[in-house]
Protein 1
Amino acid sequence: MAEDFERDLRKDGLPKEKIRAQIIRSKERITSAPVAILLCLDMSEMDSYPDEKRNKAETMMAVQSVAAAGLQLLLAAHAEGLGGVWACWPLFAQETIKKTLNLSQSWEPQGMFFFGYPVEIPEARERKSLQDITIFR
């Protein structure tokens, strides 16, 4: 994944020092977590339609299902006193991950979750008010 990440960052025109720092940070996140879980999407069990519109909707429903499962995973970990973080890097290195982990070609890596007991619990960030982010009619 680091090679894929470096290649993409070079294409973005980032300076070598910044690329190196981002790769080191990413590697540290992966190797410092006691547990890493990779969530994958498998479209082989989903419905298939003769038109692109419904196939696209079916894919979107599957992606939403994976995201909902990831959220539930984070909530369950939190309920057990674990800290967790969701990283979407696998979206940028799907083929590398499939090859490295010998995954079925139908499995599409979507997100990687890192879990462990937090060293410290940070202060909650200030959130926008409900009125600022919703419209009721």
Protein 2
Amino acid sequence: MSAKSNKTSSDWIDLSVTLREGMIAFPSESQIRLERRRSMARGDGANNTSIHMSVHTGTHMDAPRHFIADGKTIDQMPFNITLGPARVIEIVDNVSVKAEELAKHNIKRGERILLKTGNSPKFWQTDTISKDFIYITRGAARFLVDTGVKLVGVDSLSVGSLDDPDQTTPDTHQILLGNETWIIEGLNLTGVSAGNYNLICLPLKLNETEGSPVRAIIQPIGKL
């Protein structure tokens, strides 16, 4: 389902993917399982569902604690990290997000940056993860940190590469999270144009965890 199909009459766009059994996930993560414990169709008085999943399933956030031993946990995230103006930047490179391309966009300190790549139209069309998704290089991560970006969002399940011999996933995570640049992973930016938006994205208040599922929505600036 494209993000554009989730528009409402107020022009809010849902960037979150639907959580469901069998959805795309890393092999190292537990698969999501939805258990209908009580069912009115079976004669129970109410419906009641339990959910079993990794906090890094679907559209989710990484807190610094994900790769930094004494980093902030998800319940310690300041609200101003994910509430406010955000900019969608469309990446042309079909291999990786590089510092040279980011430098063309005049990114300012304190910005919230959502990176739309070639992942969006194809990543969520399958339940099998591919290693060749577009990722953030270490150089680009350092550029974002040096620029003072407070939040970066990507349209894949990881900011880092799974299969690049010159980079391992922790490198990119450690550069960003070690400097308290918070991360949203698993966005669906299909149909979303580059530009300025209002962002609302809140994680669950999970005690001392390194991540959480989120519902991320944006609205073109000027629509409020």
